[in-house]
């Protein structure tokens, strides 16, 4: 009996401490990009799902955009297909496109939706084809001025924000797989960071959070020190100097783009830290890196 009281009092005091942060975010939308490399094990995934469900319970509207690069890799490996990447984007021929869509929409998306629902959330899994959520076109990547054809890699033309607003403002947690659809119905494989930033822009989210597999943005990839806050100009300078590369580039550029289009806060955080979402939202210091204008 006394133990139960203690637990209740502990929970109540945590809630009281969190109240000012909850008030700030109440009724607002937070876009959370959950990267494939941060989905390390079931325990961590469970914590992430608990945090997202808790946000919804306390009146914040989370929208989850997930990756799944490692899941795609492992299925391609079984099929003895090797992927090439150009500037972090997977060269996607027709077979790879089919696998990417099958894995992201059929496996990764449904696993996350099911886990959220197990935690008491009401998650709905969709990809960019559903309700024409992510209208896309073929993307060409430029390397040293040369135009490179990456096959079925897409770029976002527009986001049908209404679909997400309807779900998020209601009791649902939308979980989005980064597959876009062209005017002629062609499916496109789109980098999940880019999709998260475009969605945050389209719905004017309060916050955009990238959960990845490093502690935050560092002065360079091999440095131990994380940058707790940095401006967009400084980030662009770091890219020019080659201090940010690979999969970190779409994240930081996504943050800057989102900030310029009305998103208030953008963060890069370590998805391997237990309850990283709550630590970021419910503490003054936050964790990881905040990018600001
Ligand atoms: N300056 C930097 N600071 C931190 N990480 C960096 C930096 N530059 C490049 N990276 C790399 O970016 C990676 C994160 O991107 P990525 O692996 O694509 O993540 P995700 O799968 O979560 O989208 C890190 O593991 C790191 O190797
Ligand atoms: C074009 C492109 O590269 N698409 C990505 C989509 C998944 C993704 O972005 O997953 P992560 O966030 O886990 O890296 C891919 O095929 O891997």
From TrEMBL:
UniProtKB keywords: Amino-acid biosynthesis, Arginine biosynthesis, ATP-binding, Cytoplasm, Kinase, Nucleotide-binding, Transferase
Residues the record marks as site: Transition state stabilizer: 33, 251
Family (UniProt): Belongs to the acetylglutamate kinase family. ArgB subfamily.
Subcellular location: Cytoplasm
A GO molecular function held by the record: ATP binding
PANTHER family reported for this sequence: N-ACETYLGLUTAMATE SYNTHASE, N-ACETYLGLUTAMATE SYNTHASE, MITOCHONDRIAL
Organism, scientific name: Caldicellulosiruptor obsidiansis (strain ATCC BAA-2073 / JCM 16842 / OB47)
HAMAP family named in the record: ArgB (MF_00082)
Example of a GO biological process term: L-arginine biosynthetic process via ornithine
Xref: Pfam families: AA_kinase
Ranges for domain Aspartate/glutamate/uridylate kinase: 28-270
Pathway assigned to this chain's UniProt record: Amino-acid biosynthesis; L-arginine biosynthesis; N(2)-acetyl-L-ornithine from L-glutamate: step 2/4
Reaction(s) catalysed (UniProt annotation): N-acetyl-L-glutamate + ATP = N-acetyl-L-glutamyl 5-phosphate + ADP
Reported function: Catalyzes the ATP-dependent phosphorylation of N-acetyl-L-glutamate.
Chief localization: cytoplasm
CDD domains to which the protein is assigned, alphabetical: AAK_NAGK-C (cd04250)
Enzyme Commission designation: 2.7.2.8
Annotated binding of substrate, by residue: 68-69, 90, 189
Name this protein carries in UniProt: Acetylglutamate kinase
GO-annotated cellular components: cytoplasm
């Amino acid at each position: 009996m006394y133990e139960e009281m203690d637990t209740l009092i502990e929970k109540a005091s945590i809630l009281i401490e969190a109240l000012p942060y909850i008030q700030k975010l109440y009724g607002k939308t937070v876009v959370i990009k959950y990267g494939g490399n941060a989905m390390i094990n079931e325990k961590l995934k469970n914590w992430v799902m608990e945090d997202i469900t808790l946000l919804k319970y306390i009146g914040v509207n989370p929208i989850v955009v997930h990756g799944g690069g490692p899941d795609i890799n492992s299925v391609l490996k079984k099929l003895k297909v090797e992927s090439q990447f150009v500037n972090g984007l997977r060269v996607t021929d027709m077979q790879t496109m089919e696998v990417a869509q099958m894995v992201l929409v059929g496996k990764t998306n449904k696993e996350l939706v099911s886990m959220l629902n197990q935690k008491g959330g009401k998650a709905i899994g969709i990809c960019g084809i559903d309700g024409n959520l992510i209208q896309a076109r073929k993307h060409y990547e430029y390397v040293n001025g040369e135009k490179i054809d990456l096959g079925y890699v897409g770029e976002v033309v527009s986001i049908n924000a209404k679909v997400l607003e309807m779900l998020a403002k209601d009791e649902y947690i939308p979980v989005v797989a980064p597959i876009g659809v062209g005017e002629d119905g062609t499916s496109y494989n789109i980098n999940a960071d880019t999709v998260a930033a475009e969605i945050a822009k389209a719905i004017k989210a309060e916050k955009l959070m990238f959960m990845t597999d490093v502690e935050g943005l560092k002065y360079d990839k091999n440095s131990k020190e994380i940058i707790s806050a940095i401006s967009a100009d400084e980030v662009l300078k770091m890219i020019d100097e080659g201090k940010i590369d690979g999969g970190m580039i779409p994240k930081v550029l996504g943050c800057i783009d989102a900030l310029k289009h009305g998103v208030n806060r953008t963060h890069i955080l370590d998805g391997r830290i237990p309850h990283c979402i709550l630590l970021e939202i419910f503490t003054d210091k936050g964790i990881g890196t905040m990018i600001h204008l």
